[in-house]
Amino acid sequence: MQAPDTPDSIDRVIVDAILAGRITAGTRLGEQSLATLFSVSRTMTREALIRLEARGIVQVSSRRGWFVIKPSFEEAQEAFQARQAIEMGILMAVQRLGPEVVDKLRAHIVRERAAIASDDLEARSFLLGDFHVCLVEALGNRVLADILRDLTARTVLISALYQSVHDATASCDEHEAITNALAGGDLKRAADLMVSHIGNVEAGLTRAKDDDPLTNLRQALKLSPRRE
Amino acid sequence: MQAPDTPDSIDRVIVDAILAGRITAGTRLGEQSLATLFSVSRTMTREALIRLEARGIVQVSSRRGWFVIKPSFEEAQEAFQARQAIEMGILMAVQRLGPEVVDKLRAHIVRERAAIASDDLEARSFLLGDFHVCLVEALGNRVLADILRDLTARTVLISALYQSVHDATASCDEHEAITNALAGGDLKRAADLMVSHIGNVEAGLTRAKDDDPLTNLRQALKLSPRRE
DNA sequence: CGTTCCAATCTTGTATGGAAGTCTGATCCG
DNA sequence: CGGATCAGACTTCCATACAAGATTGGAACG
Fold first, then answer.
1. Nearest Cα residue in chain B from A85
2. Is the CB of A51 under 7 A from strand C?
3. If 0-12 CB within 10 Å is exposed, 13-18 middle and 19+ buried, where does residue A110 land?
4. What confidence tens digit (pLDDT) does each residue in A150-206 have?
5. Is A86 in the B-facing interface, judged by CB distances under 8 Å?
6. Beta strands in A98-197 (DSSP E)
7. Cys-Cys with B202: which of A123, A131, B11, B80 at CB 3.0–4.6 Å?
């Protein structure tokens, strides 16, 4: 992490940490803290945070601090709906599908299963989200890939926030079903499967955490709900 | 323009200028020039430019300057394809369509026609792009609205760059047809019309400008092509 | 006359210092 | 003891200064 390769490597490290679930919604990202960590000046970290803010991944609260976004339940639903619409549209608009796309996806699924089998939670979180990025990247449209990457980061945050109970194995199975449909050239079916897959993940969300900012603390203290 | 209401008002002014066609692809946006114009320090304009860069609207060339993006022909096609996929997906995913959406769109079309009739080129450019933003905004998903706003800005730049010959009146007619399909509740048809509408605009692009960076100068000097 | 080189100038890149708002916790008062 | 007040220790916010690369125009040279 010490290597300041590119000017936006800070962005990447933060986003990767989010995708891996090492950073969760609401986490504070202080300009000075990051600067110390990356051995750069506050200017650099501030610029990185500004970029991430423009990408909808962090928020600044005036003179209070920078925080990873903590979407409301409604915003969470909007994010999932956005992904449903976009990913469906992408699949329906596919003109030509090279075999290398399917190969890449199958290889990805192998890695997913490996991460699940070895209980590597970070790799699991990252790979399950990355499948969708991988798919759209393989289709060759960078514009869409960029959009989906950020949207996926948001979705990972949301899943952790509203503790999606959607099983990782189930997700992986659904990824496989989508890939199989693509391999068979049945784009319509792939699109339908994609919609239901994202819908399944969304359906696993629970509203709980949104209503009560004390939930985290309450859980940590093992208090039963609503008993102050 | 003197009013520094919000910290990101600079962003908005620039994007609005792009949507209205007052700023075109490749325009230089100097940090100091903007700072003087907005009566702020270079820090502020730099932050605004960084935000716009994250949104894919401007680019920085190291120690040379900031420029409005000048997409290659391939990138232009990607942007249009992205819009086709996303907007189709949005329409296909609509659950419920309130009558106020149609009303809003009809009002928008009236303004489009007025701008066309009065030869107000800036309003025309802005409104023709804004129709799509308006539509997705009316559907109530802010995530998608934000994405489409930026994508629309890119598309407006592209249309000017590759001098789209698609007629404004035709675009407006197509907007109306889409709105009518929505009013009739025929979402599938609306989606199809949207795809062909965006396809029509894309089809009007000409590759010419991309090949020769001197085209602008050549045209300005009224030289015939390839006669140095 | 054509070419090379260099210096002046313009641009962004980066660090730093102080202004100003926000929160915390101690102190003071009733 | 309970509640208001205020000092301080944070934080971001914003401006400024200087560093350093890029460009340009002209001078020097063949």
1. B89
2. no
3. exposed
4. 999 999 999 998 877 789 999 999 999 999 999 999 999 999 999 999 999 999 998
5. yes
6. none
7. B80
